[in-house]
């Protein structure tokens, strides 16, 4: 197919039924960009000979050097199938785990996906991740099993063995899809049962009808009713292509069914059903029969498909049998050029034959157009999910918003249809690459004019030279200067212009139109992530979280090129210029204020690697700040922070991502020399239950302590109880606080960490109530909070946790972290953090409790002290995790004349308690009339905050403290020869192997391990060097793990003295990490500068 004109693509855009928006997803190095090259070559954009070598969609220099894709890029292709013309908007995405955020941005804009799996490696970690992302976005995948040539050339499998191997790969992919489907069905069933329970409570249905009334929970009920016939990959359904993109061939079963139906006289429909499966051909009866495996016969797929490909490779690559090759070419009807047949590399001849016989682009594009949905086929489930942001359900949205669902479904390009656009990311383009700044090709007339002008200039120049030669005797040598100077002066401004243009770079938004027609210069609303359509429809401008912007220019994305467009109809992917001031990373645009913002993108990788950045020359700091702002906008996953210390910190997903961000800062965004610190490793601090054995695994109960360490130093204001209760008095002796630190169960910590958004919503509701406002929360949010509360009640069991959930005072740090402040003060009544749930219950029951009147004015000071204590722990000023601080004592001792003021006073005075609870208004009046002597925002509140913070820190130190390290899960594929070296590198870096298994049919081992983030820098390079490139790891942030060793440990028992010696100077990993963090933060580090000094220089020796 020849090169497709821009006008043809514009015409195809107007028919959404024939548009296919799809992305290519796979694990790293499984052949995404090579396959994309073959598809691009089918449109004549690049030569088919360069497909797989050019990697056209890898337009960045570092992508070409590293050989991996780092940025998702799009291209529009034309495909003709019969009489129908299709427009394929193809997005190539990265496979490396560090750039999985780019996959998220691509998946959101698509309706379908091509999932590629390496025929040798099979399903890898990132394959599972991309299948999960496609599932979460409700897009339909098709499968390409790539690199089948490796089964022939590397593994040397026979066609029969290869068939068995391919079956196993299909089973693996379908197992991943099946597990996703099962979890979805069970989730839906749980939601239905919840609704049934609600109806039952309201009395709408009888208990017998309620599914929740069954005593036995039947897990299979939902699965049996669900239709999963279209869900799985199967060659006979036409959603699987077998390919070798590097050799340029690929096929689906339909192609071979049509070829063999003519030769064998069997209907194509029959062959289509029997080519894949346990069927064989009975040559005598000329029938296709079942039971090939049981009877030891060759399956049809091996006999009719794989044997032909194996014999072709054998003839061309292995034996180089010219006669056999010619016979094959004759029977296939293929003609190759003489230079290809004589080429020294047999792969050139092979790809020349295969690209004519079974072109991979035809097989893949036919499957895409046949099996993937058009924009018109978008499911209502996907639309509702996109519009249900945060805690809001689709059915709770305003009616005008719900009506927009029809605009999505119709995908109409009428002028009356509302414009709906989603921007998934912003990417930077050189101003020179924009179509309006490019030199357009000259017409024939313009070329003729320029030719004539060039001739005239040449004639004038010759005449000028002849004049100077004739007057050479009389004129001085300097007389030529005026002739050359004007030319030089005219040339100077011309050279300056490109330099100015070089520095200009512009942002283009990567977007898709869901409804309406987008036109250049059109004004649209930009919906912020917190925008509420109900508020937007009711309020007059200005509406919060709603802005207006103009789309200055529209572009067709063509890989490395951009083409300017005047308008883009719905259902198409496009680039939009002029949004950099309104859109940071992603946004929802519309002409209708009724549209809610789309749900945020689902990122698989968590940014965890941080570095502090500063310019080499301090005067260039403004350039660095501007560069980091641009980087933050251009990268979906990178985060830019300014810490309390004033450091500019860049947070990235991994080492490769960090390197790319630093290169971009130097070369594109800041364009200055920068220096980056060593990676700032995040840690967490926690307490554990007292250990039962010492460092030599001896029972501590039977040991006699030789030394006692790590005790809190007592003073007149600080007292430590043997049970771990720390009592601290404020400097003015007016308040005393007693705090105890208790380790939270691991399950509770994980639950709190995973429910951060819910806890934040809970805190916002509490804040609104304190300010006298009401925060409307959807029933879904209230249900989720009820579930969170009930799960906490289940997990916090035991005597010490009795009624603990109702006594929760606050969460921290930042009011939503995985630490708890518990109210254990006797007789102190305050509203629970779950007040929003109680309020709902109170409304239903018709009686709201008036406990709010008993709030102490200094309640907030205690919470603030707790927040500060959990934000930076005593070990190395890192946040705390999994710690519960129980406030067991809180005494307020004011002079007697102040006690009548209000609820600030001590609760030990029973008469005062009664007066406060009986008449809260009276105290307020008294305070107003006499002038408050103790101000809840005055100096005393600061003393109380400091006292609570110090009490929490000392209570923390009174318990066994530990550091928590961030951990990566690491998956390594390696051969048996290098397995020992892989284990060596893991052991050296504190890694721990969890699982090791051999891939069936290959020599590859899959090693699953966990590795501290602190030890991961340079890990991938070291493994590649030690294994000569035969093993490469994939690192994904997994969890936080307690480091078992105590950082402040010294020998305290006789056995430990005997085992470790008095100094115990063997490496303490936790102490090493802690001292590293303290040194970076400028805190005191307890270490000996000189050890084992043998000689000492004195004044006399120095003379």
Automatic annotation (TrEMBL):
<dbReference type="InterPro" id="IPR000640">
    <property type="entry name" value="EFG_V-like"/>
</dbReference>
<feature type="compositionally biased region" description="Basic and acidic residues">
    <location>
        <begin position="193"/>
        <end position="207"/>
    </location>
</feature>
<dbReference type="InterPro" id="IPR041095">
    <property type="entry name" value="EFG_II"/>
</dbReference>
<dbReference type="Pfam" id="PF00009">
    <property type="entry name" value="GTP_EFTU"/>
</dbReference>
<dbReference type="InterPro" id="IPR014721">
    <property type="entry name" value="Ribsml_uS5_D2-typ_fold_subgr"/>
</dbReference>
<feature type="region of interest" description="Disordered">
    <location>
        <begin position="193"/>
        <end position="212"/>
    </location>
</feature>
<feature type="region of interest" description="Disordered">
    <location>
        <begin position="438"/>
        <end position="457"/>
    </location>
</feature>
<keyword id="KW-0342">GTP-binding</keyword>
<dbReference type="GO" id="GO:0003924">
    <property type="term" value="F:GTPase activity"/>
</dbReference>
<feature type="compositionally biased region" description="Basic and acidic residues">
    <location>
        <begin position="901"/>
        <end position="910"/>
    </location>
</feature>
<keyword id="KW-0378">Hydrolase</keyword>
<feature type="region of interest" description="Disordered">
    <location>
        <begin position="901"/>
        <end position="924"/>
    </location>
</feature>
<feature type="region of interest" description="Disordered">
    <location>
        <begin position="466"/>
        <end position="500"/>
    </location>
</feature>
<dbReference type="GO" id="GO:0005829">
    <property type="term" value="C:cytosol"/>
</dbReference>
<dbReference type="InterPro" id="IPR056752">
    <property type="entry name" value="EFL1"/>
</dbReference>
<keyword id="KW-0547">Nucleotide-binding</keyword>
<dbReference type="Pfam" id="PF00679">
    <property type="entry name" value="EFG_C"/>
</dbReference>
<dbReference type="InterPro" id="IPR004161">
    <property type="entry name" value="EFTu-like_2"/>
</dbReference>
<dbReference type="InterPro" id="IPR000795">
    <property type="entry name" value="T_Tr_GTP-bd_dom"/>
</dbReference>
<dbReference type="Pfam" id="PF25118">
    <property type="entry name" value="EFL1"/>
</dbReference>
<dbReference type="InterPro" id="IPR005225">
    <property type="entry name" value="Small_GTP-bd"/>
</dbReference>
<dbReference type="GO" id="GO:0042256">
    <property type="term" value="P:cytosolic ribosome assembly"/>
</dbReference>
<dbReference type="InterPro" id="IPR027417">
    <property type="entry name" value="P-loop_NTPase"/>
</dbReference>
<dbReference type="Pfam" id="PF14492">
    <property type="entry name" value="EFG_III"/>
</dbReference>
<keyword id="KW-0690">Ribosome biogenesis</keyword>
<feature type="domain" description="Tr-type G">
    <location>
        <begin position="17"/>
        <end position="269"/>
    </location>
</feature>
<dbReference type="GO" id="GO:1990904">
    <property type="term" value="C:ribonucleoprotein complex"/>
</dbReference>
<feature type="compositionally biased region" description="Polar residues">
    <location>
        <begin position="466"/>
        <end position="488"/>
    </location>
</feature>
<dbReference type="InterPro" id="IPR020568">
    <property type="entry name" value="Ribosomal_Su5_D2-typ_SF"/>
</dbReference>
<protein>
    <recommendedName>
        <fullName>Elongation factor-like 1</fullName>
    </recommendedName>
</protein>
<feature type="compositionally biased region" description="Basic and acidic residues">
    <location>
        <begin position="447"/>
        <end position="457"/>
    </location>
</feature>
<dbReference type="InterPro" id="IPR009000">
    <property type="entry name" value="Transl_B-barrel_sf"/>
</dbReference>
<dbReference type="InterPro" id="IPR035647">
    <property type="entry name" value="EFG_III/V"/>
</dbReference>
<dbReference type="Pfam" id="PF03144">
    <property type="entry name" value="GTP_EFTU_D2"/>
</dbReference>
<dbReference type="GO" id="GO:0043022">
    <property type="term" value="F:ribosome binding"/>
</dbReference>
<dbReference type="GO" id="GO:0005525">
    <property type="term" value="F:GTP binding"/>
</dbReference>
């Amino acid at each position: 197919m020849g090169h497709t004109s821009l006008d043809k693509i514009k015409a195809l855009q107007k028919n959404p039924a024939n548009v296919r928006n799809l992305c290519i997803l796979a694990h790293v190095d499984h052949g995404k960009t090579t396959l994309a090259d073959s598809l691009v070559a089918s449109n004549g954009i690049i030569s088919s000979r360069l497909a797989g070598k050019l990697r056209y969609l890898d337009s960045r220099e570092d992508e070409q050097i590293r050989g991996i894709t780092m940025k998702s890029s799009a291209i529009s292709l034309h495909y003709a199938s019969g009489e129908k013309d299709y427009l394929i908007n193809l997005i190539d995405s990265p496979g490396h785990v560090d750039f999985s955020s780019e996959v998220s941005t691509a998946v959101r804009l698509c309706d379908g996906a091509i999932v590629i799996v390496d025929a040798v490696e099979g399903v890898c970690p990132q394959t599972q991740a991309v299948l999960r992302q496609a599932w979460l976005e409700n897009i339909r995948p098709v499968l390409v099993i790539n690199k089948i040539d490796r089964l022939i050339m590397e593994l040397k499998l026979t066609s029969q063995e290869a068939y068995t191997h391919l079956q196993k790969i299909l089973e693996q992919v379908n197992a991943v899809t099946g597990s996703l489907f099962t979890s979805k069905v069970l989730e839906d069933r749980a939601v239905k049962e919840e609704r049934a329970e609600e109806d039952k409570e309201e009395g709408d249905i009888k208990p017998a009808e309620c599914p929740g009334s069954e005593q036995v929970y039947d897990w299979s009920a939902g699965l049996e009713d669900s239709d999963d016939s279209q869900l799985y990959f199967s060659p006979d359904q036409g959603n699987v292509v077998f390919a070798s993109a590097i050799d340029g061939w690929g096929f689906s079963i339909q192609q071979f069914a049509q070829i063999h139906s003519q030769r064998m006289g069997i209907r194509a429909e029959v062959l289509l059903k029997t080519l894949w499966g346990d069927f064989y051909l009975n040559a005598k009866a000329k029938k296709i029969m079942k039971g090939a495996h049981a009877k030891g016969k060759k399956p049809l797929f091996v006999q009719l498909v794989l044997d032909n490909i194996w014999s072709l490779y054998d003839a061309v690559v292995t034996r180089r049998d010219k006669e056999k090759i010619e016979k094959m070419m004759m029977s296939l009807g293929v003609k190759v050029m003489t230079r290809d047949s004589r080429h020294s590399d047999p792969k050139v001849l092979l790809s020349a034959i295969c690209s004519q016989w079974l072109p991979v682009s035809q097989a893949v594009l036919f499957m895409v157009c046949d099996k993937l949905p058009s924009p018109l086929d978008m499911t209502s489930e996907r639309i509702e999910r996109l519009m249900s942001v945060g805690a809001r359900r689709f059915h709770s949205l305003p009616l005008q918003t719900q009506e927009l669902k029809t605009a999505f479904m119709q995908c109409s390009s009428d002028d009356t249809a509302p414009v709906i656009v989603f921007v998934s990311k912003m990417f930077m383009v050189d101003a020179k690459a924009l179509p309006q700044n490019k030199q357009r090709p000259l017409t024939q007339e313009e070329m003729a004019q320029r030719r004539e002008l060039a001739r005239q200039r040449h004639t004038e120049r010759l005449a000028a030279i002849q004049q100077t030669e004739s007057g050479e005797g009389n004129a001085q040598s300097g007389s030529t200067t005026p002739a050359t100077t004007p030319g030089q002066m005219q040339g100077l401004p011309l050279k300056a212009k490109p330099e100015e243009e070089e520095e200009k770079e512009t942002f283009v938004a990567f977007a898709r139109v869901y409804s309406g027609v987008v036109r250049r210069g059109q004004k649209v609303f930009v919906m912020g992530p917190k925008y509420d359509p109900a508020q937007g429809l009711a309020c007059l401008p200005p509406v919060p979280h709603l802005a207006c912007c103009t789309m200055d220019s529209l572009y067709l994305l063509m890989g490395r090129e951009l083409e300017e467009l005047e308008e883009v109809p719905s259902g198409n992917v496009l680039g939009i210029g002029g949004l950099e001031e309104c859109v940071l990373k992603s946004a929802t645009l519309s002409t209708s204020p009724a549209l809610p913002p789309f749900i945020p993108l689902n990122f698989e990788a968590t940014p965890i690697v941080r570095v502090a950045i500063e310019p080499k020359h301090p005067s260039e700091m403004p350039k660095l700040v501007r560069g980091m702002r641009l980087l933050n906008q251009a990268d979906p996953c990178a985060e830019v922070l300014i810490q309390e210390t004033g450091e500019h910190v860049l947070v990235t997903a991994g080492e490769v991502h960090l390197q790319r961000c630093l290169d971009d800062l130097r070369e594109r965004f800041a364009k200055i020399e920068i220096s980056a610190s060593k990676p700032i490793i995040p840690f967490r601090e926690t307490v554990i239950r007292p250990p039962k054995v010492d460092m030599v695994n001896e029972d501590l109960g039977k040991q006699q302590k030789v030394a006692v360490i790590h005790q809190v130093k007592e003073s007149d204001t600080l007292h430590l109880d043997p049970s771990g209760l720390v009592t601290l008095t404020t400097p003015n002796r007016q308040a005393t606080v007693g705090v105890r630190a208790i380790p939270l169960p691991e399950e509770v910590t994980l639950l709190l960490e995973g429910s951060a958004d819910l806890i934040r919503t809970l805190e916002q509701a509490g804040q609104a109530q304190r300010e006298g406002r009401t925060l409307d929360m959807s029933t879904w949010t209230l249900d989720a909070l009820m579930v969170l509360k009930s799960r906490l009640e289940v997990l916090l069991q035991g005597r010490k946790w009795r009624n603990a959930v109702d006594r929760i005072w606050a969460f921290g740090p930042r009011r939503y972290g995985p630490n708890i402040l518990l109210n254990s003060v006797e007789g102190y009544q305050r509203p629970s953090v779950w007040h929003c749930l109680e309020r709902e219950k109170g409304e239903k029951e018709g009686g709201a409790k008036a406990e709010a009147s008993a709030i102490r004015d200094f309640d907030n000071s205690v919470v603030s002290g707790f927040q500060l204590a959990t934000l930076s722990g005593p070990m190395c000023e890192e946040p705390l995790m999994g710690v519960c601080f129980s406030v067991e004592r809180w005494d307020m001792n004011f002079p007697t004349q102040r006690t009548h003021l209000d609820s600030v006073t001590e609760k030990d005075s029973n008469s005062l308690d009664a007066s406060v609870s009986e008449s809260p208004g009276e105290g307020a009046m008294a305070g107003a009339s006499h002038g408050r002597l103790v101000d809840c925002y005055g100096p005393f509140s600061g003393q109380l905050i400091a006292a609570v913070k110090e009490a929490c820190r000392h209570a923390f130190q009174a318990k066994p403290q530990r550091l928590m390290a961030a951990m990566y899960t690491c998956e390594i594929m390696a051969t048996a020869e290098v397995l020992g070296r892989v284990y060596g590198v893991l052991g050296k870096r504190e890694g721990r192997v969890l699982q090791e298994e051999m891939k069936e049919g290959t020599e590859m081992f899959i090693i699953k391990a966990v590795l501290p983030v602190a030890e991961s820098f340079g890990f991938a390079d070291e493994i590649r060097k030690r294994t000569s490139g035969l093993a490469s790891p994939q690192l994904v942030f997994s969890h936080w793990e307690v480091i078992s060793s105590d950082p402040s440990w010294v020998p305290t028992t006789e056995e430990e003295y005997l085992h470790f010696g008095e100094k115990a100077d063997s490496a303490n990993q936790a102490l090493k990490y802690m001292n590293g963090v303290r040194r970076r933060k400028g805190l005191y580090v307890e270490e000996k500068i000189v050890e084992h000094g043998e000689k000492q220089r004195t004044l006399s020796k120095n003379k």
